[in-house]
Amino acid sequence: MKLVLLLLVAVLVLALWRPGFGFRAQRLAHYADTGPAFDIQERLSGTLISEGMIYGPRGRVVSRFVARMNGEWDGATGTLSEDFAYANGSTQARKWYLTMGEDGHFTATADDIIGEGKGQQMGATVRLTYRIRLPEDAGGHVLDVTDWMYLMDNGTILNRSEMRKFGIKVAELIATMRPAEG
């Protein structure tokens, strides 16, 4: 019993201590002088293709997907429609509503987002944080998500997302986004 309690305390200490390392150590300021400049109104506009994978808590791939996305902007407000096709044959449609603010800040909402996501673009990067409620068939869990998107020189966007529950990482997403050809 003492060993189990000691292990539990050790896991909690590591989970709380780790923000200074790895994924959670990133700050937008680290990328302020990088280029090309990531302007989401430009880069998340038109038809995009996304390909990615979701890793479970043990680091194994649990899902793969291809998504067709379409971004439209009217001044400072935009929508990003996403149609996912997963390797297991399931599909999902989502729509983000984006509103630009001052100094590269923006907000993001969607039907499965609790409250309002907060984002900022700086240099070649975008960071977005939000709470998402998973579909009931995926457990209906509420997760805290941090998305980092990096604009590459060739126009491809690399997206890395970390999903946490009670501060513990439960999933990670890696995806590319690029303009659709033709």
TrEMBL record:
It holds the Pfam family DUF3833. This is DUF3833 domain-containing protein. It comes from Phaeobacter gallaeciensis.
